[in-house]
């Protein structure tokens, strides 16, 4: 029987002929650099902001909400353009968005400074029995431009002012019937001045009203 050759180093050399072991799941041992990189990368940072598309959508929603809020306010009370702009400025939207909303509201007639001026004039004349100065101040307080105020007030003349002052003084003079004339005149002039009538009109209307109160027969004769 022939004996097969045998090498004493064969068992030690066999592992060198085997293929390297490869992980089926691609596993790789983590290195020190990998650990350091993971520690340096935060999951969130305060400086990060929303996606531009998300910001645009949020801005659009804010503008629409501001417009709805303004329309709701206008349904309850008429506003001047200055008042409306001030309201929109409180809604935290951009200036160009405010301009767009204002343009739309003016174009649709939701905002009309002249119409508001005429409304203030009507209330001042018919309900409050005010003079020119008080009505003009009320318009200015609502933020109406000077040219709008002047145009609205142009329909009034001095004769109208005197007639309204006289009518107001006549109603107030009745309560001063038992008051000494000079004292009654001062009180009546003060009431007329607080209603916004001018100085010359105040004096004339107050004196005429007291004269009528003192001489009713003569007044009736003159009025007939």
TrEMBL record:
KW Cytoplasm (keyword) present = yes
Q: Start and end of every RecX second three-helical domain?
A: 112-153
Question: Where in the numbering of this chain does the RecX third three-helical domain appear?
Answer: 159-202
Q: Which gene encodes it?
A: recX
* Any one GO biological process: regulation of DNA repair
List residues traversing the bilayer: none
Q: What is this protein called?
A: Regulatory protein RecX
One GO CC term, this protein: cytoplasm
Q: Which InterPro entries match?
A: RecX_HTH_2nd (IPR053924), RecX_HTH_3rd (IPR053925), Regulatory_RecX (IPR003783), WH-like_DNA-bd_sf (IPR036388)
So what does this one do? Answer: Modulates RecA activity.
Tell me which species this is from: Microbacterium aurantiacum
Q: Which family does it belong to?
A: Belongs to the RecX family.
Supply the alphabetized keyword list: Cytoplasm
Task: Indicate where this protein resides in the cell.
Answer: Cytoplasm
């Amino acid at each position: 029987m022939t004996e097969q050759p045998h090498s004493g180093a064969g068992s030690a050399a066999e592992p060198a002929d085997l293929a390297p072991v490869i992980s089926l799941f691609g596993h790789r041992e983590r290195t020190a650099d990998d650990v350091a990189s993971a520690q340096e990368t935060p999951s969130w940072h305060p400086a990060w902001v929303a996606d531009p598309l998300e910001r645009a959508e949020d801005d659009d929603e804010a503008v629409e909400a501001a417009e709805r809020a303004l329309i709701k306010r206008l349904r309850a009370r008429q506003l001047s353009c200055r008042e409306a702009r001030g309201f929109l400025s409180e809604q935290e939207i951009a200036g160009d968005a405010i301009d767009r909303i204002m343009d739309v509201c003016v174009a649709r007639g939701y905002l009309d400074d002249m119409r508001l001026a005429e409304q203030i004039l009507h209330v001042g004349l018919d309900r409050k029995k005010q003079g020119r100065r008080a009505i003009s101040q009320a318009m200015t307080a609502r933020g109406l431009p000077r040219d709008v105020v002047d145009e609205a007030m142009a329909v009034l003349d001095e004769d109208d002012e005197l007639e309204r002052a006289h009518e107001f003084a006549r109603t107030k003079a009745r309560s001063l019937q038992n008051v000494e004339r000079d004292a009654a005149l001062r009180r009546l002039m003060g009431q007329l001045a607080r209603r916004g009538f001018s100085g010359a009109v105040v004096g004339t209307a107050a004196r005429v009203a007291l004269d009528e109160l003192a001489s009713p027969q003569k007044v009736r004769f003159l009025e007939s």
